[in-house]
Design brief:
Elements (H helix, E strand, L loop, with lengths): L1 E6 L6 H17 L4 E3 L10 H7 L6 H13 L2 E3 L3 E3 L8 E7 L5 E6 L5 E4 L2 E4 L12 E3 L5 E4 L8 H9 L4 E6 L3 H19 L2 E6 L1 E3 L5 E3 L3 E3 L5 E4 L5 E6 L2 H10 L27
Parallel strand pairs: 1-2, 2-3, 10-11, 11-12
Antiparallel strand pairs: 1-17, 3-5, 4-5, 5-6, 7-8, 9-10, 12-15, 13-14, 15-16
Helix pairs in contact: 1-3
Amino acid sequence: MKVAAVQLNSTADQADNLATADRLTRAAAAQGAELIVLPEKWTAMGSEQELRASAQTLDGAAVAWARRTARELGVDLLAGSILESVPGQEKLANTSVHVGPDGEVMAVYRKIHMFDVEVAGRVYRESEIEQPGEEIVLSRTAGGVELGLSVCYDLRFPELYRILAVRGARIMTIPAAFTLATTRDHWETLVRARAIEDQAFVIAANQVGAHPGGQHSGGRSMIVDPWGIVLAQAADGEGAILAELDLERQLEIRASLPSLANRRPESYEWPQEHPVTAGGQHA
């Protein structure tokens, strides 16, 4: 199964972003990609005002393009994530949409973990305009391969991916806009760790370069196999990377080193809330 991760340098210009995404998606499909993954917020990156202006419903232009393009190209398209205006909800959702080769929406995942942090002296507060999702979502390609959906900061929460793996996920998709600093120091380690511990393929499509509003993403989009081997990694610029996924090899890994089967959930108990505040001091 051939897959692709598309790396973009999205701006506040939605029409330009869509044109670039369309060009690179078509290029990946022309090289044989059956599953193509776009990055987080591929429709727009920018200031809070620009992000709010980019929000649209699932009936909007972005998902309409994804449905039309997936059907035309005959591919599974993971339309990264968009900022979604959810009817009856004040805040926006950071929403990943999986579209099948027939143009139908197969699954919708709303990012669970909000990026409320301070990195390299810059404060990020996604929760000010975004509402976290509540549902873990497993989808399936047209060929019947299970997809575990996630977005960016979710990568730091291994319990999400373990649940997806236990539910049957064989491929994890991670559209992202990882910051430059965290991409350089954490990105590859985290992506490979999720692949190794859940014995899953990981397709991690990142934003790259400077964006309006002072944000800077680190690129280095990756496709990693269940043994933790990097099958493909993007250079520092826009483009698409492709790799062939050996699904039979994955079954061999899971059989010979059966860490998923050797779990003992009856012995695990979730602790109470950790007694450390957001400020890093013990309560």
